[in-house]
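Retro notes, item 3 of 5
We never archived the inputs for the adenosine-5'-triphosphate complex last cycle. Fixing that now. Sequence and ligand:
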Amino acid sequence: MAMIKVDNLAVAYGHGQNALKVVKDVSFEVAKGETFGLVGESGCGKSTVLGALAGRNKTWSGSVVIDGEAANPKRTKSQLAKQQMVFQDPFGSIHPRHTIGRTLLEPLEIHGLDRRQERIEEVLRDVGLPHNFRYRFPHQLSGGQRQRVAIARALILKPRILLLDEPTSALDVSIQAEILNLLKDLREREHLTYVLVSHDMAVIAHLCDRVAVMQDGVFVEVTTRENLLKGEVAHPYTQTLLDGSRGYVPARQRRGLQSVGHA
Ligand SMILES: Nc1ncnc2c1ncn2[C@@H]1O[C@H](COP(=O)(O)OP(=O)(O)OP(=O)(O)O)[C@@H](O)[C@H]1O
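Structure as it came back at the time:
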């Protein structure tokens, strides 16, 4: 059974004649444990698809089924806990004046979970941070450490799905490899399913099993990682994206992304 099944998803912003259709009739499935990528240039609707899956965007139509359960635009608490988002900019998504411990405590309180201190220690360990980081503030951490905290906050509710919106694009290349490696490890260890938005073919090719290429609110092609790496793609727009990343991809791979891809 698919972990995520989306049929005829459409999203518009605004109403009536001013409505702007940004996602038009998109359908796809993501298997349990799979990483499904969404790639395309800025404004094509990638984050909007992710927002509808996450329950953040409530103005969509179509059908979204998550783990066998139909998801209405308004979700229950347990449905919301099942998928968590990680954003590009951890500084923007973590409260700057809260300690890391408080940031991690908040979702546990909202969802009424027990063993709170133990869970905080466990999740810090899972993302490779020392347990005394709970006493630190975001400005005392590096960019990579802050993104680890954002991943920890997403994981603390034990979700089945992570929705990753450009999770490494604000980081230095060397740190990007570390974070991608961590995401790979966590996916195996926790049997997670990912949907990953990126404009970066190198990131897509290293983490995703399959990828949907988006242009102007529609999928122009859904292809596999193998086909991307071989350059065997069907749609001219996918080819354009690949051509744009050529030269860049091998350079990044030499700096460690390739080893991440085969870790
Ligand atoms: N809340 C909103 N209200 C009105 N228009 C919006 C809103 N959010 C996004 N849009 C518009 O919808 C379109 C798709 O945006 P979206 O963020 O989904 O694209 P994207 O492919 O993820 O791009 P980016 O990589 O720049 O985030 C864009 O034209 C954007 O300006």
